[in-house]
Amino acid sequence: MKALFEYISNKDINILRIINNSWKCRFLDITMPSMTYLGSFPFMFIFCTATFLFHSTLLHTMAINAMISITLSTGIGKILKVTVTRLRPFIKIPNLNIKKIGIDKYSFPSGHTTGAFSLAVIIALYFPIFGFITIPLALCVGISRIYIGVHYPTDVIVGIFIGTTCSLLTYKFF
C-alpha cells in the first residue's frame, strides 16, 4: 500500500510540474489567476443571487439547488481539509511558479474546483446545452489551481468528484 501511495504522489508531483512549469507562458500567466476566481465564493454567491432574481421558476429552483450543492460540497471539502491537512505544493516543492493569493495552508481537496463543479454540473443538469460551456470552464478552474501552484492534481480530481456528486444528489433529492 505504501508503494501505491508513493507512486501516486510521484505522479501527482510530475503532473503538477508539467502544468506549473512546462505550460508557463505570458497568456496563461494572465488568464489563469483570473480563471481561478470562477470557483470563488463571491463569484458563486453573485451568480446564484442574480439567477434567483430572474422571473422564472426553473431559474429559481436551479439557483436554490446550486446554493444547496455548493454548501454541501464546501462543507465536505472543509472537513477533509482539516482532517487530511495536506500542505500546499508551493510550501513543500521548490521552484514552482506561484501566484500569491489569499489562501490557507492546506490543499486537499481544492475548494475552488469543488465549488466550480458544484455550480457547473447543476447548470448542466437544468440546462444541458450550457454544460458544454460550464463543465470546461470548471475544468479550467481546476487546472488554474495547479498552474498557479496552490494545488496538486489529486486535490483537483477529488474536488471534481465532490462537486459533481453533490450536484447530482441535490438535483435528484431536492
UniProtKB/TrEMBL annotation:
Residues 61-171 form the Phosphatidic acid phosphatase type 2/haloperoxidase domain. One of its GO terms (cellular component) is plasma membrane. It holds the Pfam family PAP2. It is found in: Cell membrane. The chain crosses the membrane at residues 37-55, 116-140, 152-171. It comes from the Bacteria. GO terms for molecular function: hydrolase activity. Keywords: Cell membrane, Hydrolase, Membrane, Transmembrane, Transmembrane helix. It is a multi-pass membrane protein. InterPro entries: PAP2/HPO (IPR000326), PAP2/HPO_sf (IPR036938). This is Phosphatase PAP2 family protein. It comes from Clostridium estertheticum.
